[in-house]
Amino acid sequence: MIEKFDRLHGLPDGFFDITTANIRSLFPNPTLVQLEGRDPRFLFISILLHGNEYTGLKVMQQVLSDHAHDLPRSILLFIGNVRAAEANRRFLPGQVDYNRCWPGTDLEPSPTSGMMQRVVEIAHGLPLFAAIDIHNNTGKNPHYACITDPKMENQNLAARFNRVGMVFNHHGVSTMAFNGICPAATLECGKPGDPEGIKHACRFLEDMLTLGELPHKRPTRHALHLVESHLTLNVRDDVSFEFDPDADADLRFEPDFEDRNFTLFDPQQVFGYTRVARPIAITDTDGHDVTDEILRVEEGKIYLNNTMMPAMITQDKLVVRQDCLCHLLQDYLPYHETEF
Ligand SMILES: [Zn+2]
After folding, report:
1. Cα angle, residue 115 at apex, residues 182 and 16 outer, rounded to 5°
2. Range of the domain at 276
């Protein structure tokens, strides 16, 4: 069985006026919208895979209203978790994460993974220019693109969004499903609804709608600083936490912890405070627990063993419990490439 989704050829009336709160009045189910443009090579765009990350909807309303009568390039738009969007949640209890169940996922097959499989089959059946997935973070982060495969075309795509880009390797994300088919990137556009993030993503999509070809040369180190995210940091389920060093909680961080996104933590800087022995679990992309290699606890203070850069820190407690507290980044060092 696969989760029901709708297919449209054209935008429904009222598209430019909806918000996520009433999105199901137009899109009662996840929906794939096919729009023909002058250049028949499609831009696949997914939005609202995480229901509360509504920048993608605003961006598509803006871009499509600017091109209401003359779309430079065809678009295949996938509007994802409309039920969670309506409730302003990442996903609803009982649902799987819509950005962890695309082909390549480690999760058990589900109706939702069946739907993603079908969406990918439809997309792969069309001539594709690039695949773009629009997201937000909950913390204060720069805008950046994530790619799952650091090959040249993906690096060039990332570099057109910002000079910092991330290589990530979470199985089952939409971007991974397009590797080998077309350039693919996930855009992280700051907090949901952040006007700068919306503007930035609109500019990027304008570029993608009118660009003839991506460059055939790897971006220089100045054009793209690639970092790698292969460690995920979670607060253990039975551990209480606060963003206040003086709070009565097992694990505590500084109140401005999320300002530390994309800044370096060296092994002498206090990462957090704890009154329990193992408050944090750190996993690598294979799901192995690598906590004891990465951090140490000394007299109630937590330190990292190597200099690393946290990203996507969130202080939203629900997101911390549902997703993670942050990721830890290092510079991406290609193993088999000696020149840039
Ligand atoms: Zn997201």
Report:
1. 75
2. 230-330
Kindly give the distance from the C-alpha atom of residue 190 to the centroid of ligand 1, in angstroms, as a whole number.
10
Q: Are residues 75 and 149 in the same domain?
A: yes
Whether 10 is covered by a domain: the verdict is yes
- Cβ–Cβ contacts within 10 Å for residue 8, how many? 16
Assigned domain for 335 exists: no
Mean pLDDT value across the chain: 94
* Ligand 1 centroid, distance to 192 Cα (angstroms): 10
Centre of ligand 1 from the C-alpha of residue 280, in Å: 22
Domain boundary (181, 206, 223) is at: 223
Spacing, Cα 79 to ligand 1 middle (Å): 13
For residue 49, how far is its CA from the centre of ligand 1 (angstroms)?
A: 7
Q: How far away, in angstroms, is 261 Cα from ligand 1 center?
A: 16
pLDDT digit string, tens, across residues 80-97 = 999 999 999 999 999 999
Do both 121 and 199 map to the same domain? yes
287's torsion region: left (phi>0), alpha (psi -120 to 50) or beta? left
pTM (two decimals):
0.86
